[in-house]
Amino acid sequence: MTVALAIVERDDVEAAIEAVIDAGRYASARHWVPATSGNFSVRIDARRVAITRSGADKGALTPSDILIQALDAPLLPGSSAEAALHLRQYADNPDIGAIFHIHGPSSTVIGHAHLAEGAVHLNGWELQKALLGVTTHAATVEVPVFANEQNIDALSHRIAARLAEPITAPQIRAPGYLLAGHGLYAWGRTPRDATRHLEALEALFNQMIVFRSYRP
Ligand SMILES: [Zn+2]
Predict the structure, then answer these.
(1) Are 7 and 48 in contact (CB under 8 A)?
(2) What is the 120 CA–ligand 1 centroid distance (Å)?
(3) Which domain holds residue 72?
(4) For 112-145, what is each residue's pLDDT tens digit?
(5) Residue-wise pLDDT tens digits, 145-182
(6) 7 Cα–ligand 1 center, Å
(7) What is the pLDDT of residue 2?
(8) 101, 184 in Cβ contact below 8 A?
(9) Fewer beta carbons under 10 A from the terminal one: N or C of the chain?
(10) Crossing angle of helices 191-213 and 2-29, rounded to 10°
(11) Which of 3-12, 56-65, 97-106 has the lowest mean pLDDT?
C-alpha cells in the first residue's frame, strides 16, 4: 500500500512538472515570454504546486527548472518574486489547477492603455466564448487591470481583494488579469483550460489593437 501510494505521488509530481514544461514551450513558440520572462505553475495537490524558477528560458525548460513549492511555505531559493502571486491565488481558490503568466505583446500594450479604467471590457468578439462561463459574443467580460508594482506583497493583496469582489451581472469576470505594461496572468481548472484562456485573451487583445488601428 505504501509503495502504491508512493508511485501515485511521484506520478502527480511528474505530471505537473511535465505540464509546466509543455506550457513554457507553447508560450515561447508564440513569442509570449521574451528574455526569460513569464512564469508557469501547475497544482500538484491541495498544498503544493510545480512552478518555474526565476531566469529560466521558458522554451527550453527541464525538470531542474521547476520547483516543488508548498503553498504555506516561504518561497524556495531560486523562485521568481512573482511566484507569490501564484501561491496566493491557489490558496484562495481550490478550483484553480494551473496559472500561466506571459509578457505577450498585445496583453502588455492593452494593459498599459486601460490602466486608468482599471479594467478592459470585452464585448462583441466570438473568441470570448473560449473563456470559462462565457457563452455568447454579446456578453460583457471584465478583465481587471492593475498598475505594475515591484512590491509583490502589496500587489498580491490588491489583486486578491479585487478578485474577491463580486461582479455585477450580467458582466462576467475573465479567468485572467493584466498588469499594465507588464503582461497577462490567466488560469484554469486544468493546464489545458489555462492555456486556452491565455491564448484566447492574448488573441482578443490583438484583435482590439487591430480593430482600433484599422481605418477603412
Ligand atoms: Zn512578469
Answers:
(1) no
(2) 19
(3) 2-213
(4) 999 999 999 999 999 999 999 999 999 999 999 9
(5) 999 999 999 999 999 999 999 998 889 999 999 999 99
(6) 34
(7) 56
(8) yes
(9) C
(10) 10
(11) 3-12
Q: How far is CA 57 from CA 24, 41, 129, 154, in A?
A: 8, 15, 31, 27
Q: 54 C-alpha to center of ligand 1: Å? A: 10
Cell, residue 62: 527541464
Cα 184 to ligand 1 centroid, rounded to whole Å: 8
CA of 183 to the centre of ligand 1 (A): 6
Buried b vs exposed e over 82-93: b needs ≥16 C-beta within 10 Å? bbbbbbbbbeee
The count of domains in the chain is 1
Mean pLDDT of 11-17: 95
Specify burial of residue 209 (Cβ count, 10 A radius: 0-12, 13-18, 19+): middle
What is the predicted pLDDT for the residue at 164? 94
- The Å distance, Cα 207 to ligand 1 centre, comes to 22
Domain with residue 78: its CATH number is 3.40.225.10
